[in-house]
From TrEMBL:
Protein name: Molybdate-anion transporter
TM helices/strands, residue ranges: 6-23, 66-87, 99-123, 135-153, 225-245, 279-302, 317-336, 348-365, 371-393, 405-425, 431-453
UniProt KW keywords: Cell membrane, Ion transport, Membrane, Transmembrane, Transmembrane helix, Transport
Tagged with keyword Membrane: yes
Length: 463
């Protein structure tokens, strides 16, 4: 049996990921580690003993990563498993018109915008582990409601979906940063390592989810199957959080040992001070534009690729395999990130924004199906580097006591941006062209904004 072109593409990308993984584990030093190796050769016996002790501590820290990464893999798997088939479930099995599908997606992003104003405060006050439990429950219920062809239940499912997405991208990272800081030494290096590991795990899980969702649909004959699979993964993740994670609170909350209120009177002013800091403000604007463009890409890549595909082939697109290819590109980039210097995140972010702007510009008028596919893969590679890079910058600039609140607030303009874009996009197969052009222009503008703020050295953006 001859493999189709997308299976061949996925195979080649997986081979690239394997080569990068092997190269990374052959002892290639991360940026900044070469000097440390030279210094070790010149240490006396006492320093060598201390060095061995540090190695033991590092091994212990690496072992401590897995309670988080295991749960993180499960929750991201639950999220990715349903992703490739949400649009087609609405249109093909539920037989909803495009306008109604767009309205449902808009409802989800509106829900995310509203929930972003308060979920961080609740997480800091009542516990970040409890907030992660809330994500599992909300996301599972959203999946169940999405499988039912009833408009009120589908709307409720999207409302819960928006809430759970806001939780997923704020409280899990907040818990991880608090856990790393609670363990003490070499926080910056450990955070860079964790964000790189999260991006790698996320990409691996997404690849498996893309192939797995395609398999589930083929076996069961229904696009509801990936959503049922997500519910199972979320149940396992709920148990893992319960058994493996400690609880962490923000500075304006009761500690586990002292339940009395510790909320300072200037809490709102403190958040406002953080959000109006030029460095944090620039990162917030960049995350709004980049992540908003990413969500719009998720909504429009299928019709964009389909518009080119229909003119050249009669065979249907393999959405799961294509999605897995995108995630393989993301994985290859995140593996490359693990070898980069930890002091060049702002410069790297500038390159990510520029590359993404060019990708959207080219995607607005694709010349062929394969050209469009590889441009999309290049954008996903930029996404693979963006997440750990942005995570390191935010982890450096935002105080841990208010991290969940600030992260939640930063998602409000992001969701508003996506809602406005979806409402303005209009209908029809060519609607993606205007959206991609606008995204390209905003990403180019973000490059300029980061250049200006970084040039002024505001709040040490460059680290």
């Amino acid at each position: 049996m001859i493999m189709d072109i997308y299976t061949i593409n996925l195979t080649g990308l997986l081979v690239l990921c394997g080569a990068l993984f092997i190269a990374q584990h052959r002892g290639v030093p991360r940026g900044g580690e070469v000097e440390d190796k030279k210094g070790k050769d010149q240490k006396n016996d006492a320093d060598l003993i201390k060095s061995k002790s540090k190695v033991k501590n590092k091994k212990k820290k690496k072992a401590d990563k897995w309670p988080f990464l295991t749960v993180y893999a499960l929750v991201m798997g639950a999220d990715w498993l349903q992703g490739p088939f949400l649009y087609s479930l609405y249109t093909d099995e539920h037989a909803l018109p495009h306008a109604l599908v767009s309205a449902l997606f808009t409802t989800g992003f509106l829900s995310g915008a509203v929930s972003g104003t308060f979920i961080g405060t609740l997480a800091d006050r009542h516990g970040r582990r409890a907030a992660c439990h809330s994500f599992c429950l909300a996301c599972a219920l959203s999946c169940v409601l999405t499988m039912v062809p009833s408009l009120p239940l589908l709307v409720a499912g999207r409302v819960l979906g928006g809430l759970s997405t806001s939780l997923l991208f704020s409280v899990f990272e907040s818990w991880m940063v608090a856990d790393v800081r609670a363990r003490g030494e070499e926080v910056e290096e450990e955070l860079a390592s964790m964000f790189g590991a999260m991006s790698t795990v996320n990409s691996l899980v997404a690849i498996a989810s893309g192939v797995g969702s395609e398999w589930l649909v083929a076996v069961t004959g229904t696009r509801r199957a990936p959503f049922a699979g997500s519910v199972v993964l979320l149940g396992i993740a709920f148990g893992g959080i319960w058994m493996l994670w400690a609880e962490y609170y923000g500075e304006a909350s009761p500690s586990p040992d002292n339940k009395t209120s510790q909320t300072p009177p200037t809490s709102a002013q403190s958040i406002l001070t953080i959000l109006t800091d030029p460095a944090v403000l620039s990162l917030g604007l960049i995350s709004t534009v980049f992540e908003g463009s990413m969500y719009l890409f998720v909504f429009f890549w299928a019709p964009a690729l389909g518009s080119v595909h229909t003119s050249s082939s009669s065979s249907p697109l393999s959405f799961g395999v294509i999605f897995a290819s995108f995630m393989a590109s993301c994985l290859a980039a995140s593996l490359a990130f693990n070898t980069l210097p930890t002091s060049k995140h702002a410069t790297l972010l500038l390159l990510i924004l520029f590359t993404s702007a060019v990708c959207f510009l080219l995607s607005a008028a694709p010349r062929s199906e394969q050209a469009a596919f590889w441009v999309f893969c290049l954008f996903e590679a930029a996404v693979g580097v963006y997440w750990p890079c942005m995570g390191c910058l935010k982890g450096r600039l935002i105080d841990d006591g208010m991290r969940a609140r600030v992260y939640g607030m930063l998602r409000v303009p992001l969701n508003v941006f996506v809602v406005v874009a979806l409402l303005a996009a209009g209908e029809g197969p060519e609607a993606y062209r205007g959206v991609f052009l606008v995204c390209s222009g905003l990403l180019f503008a973000s490059c300029g904004a980061l250049w200006v703020v970084n040039g002024r050295g505001a709040a040490n953006v460059a680290g």
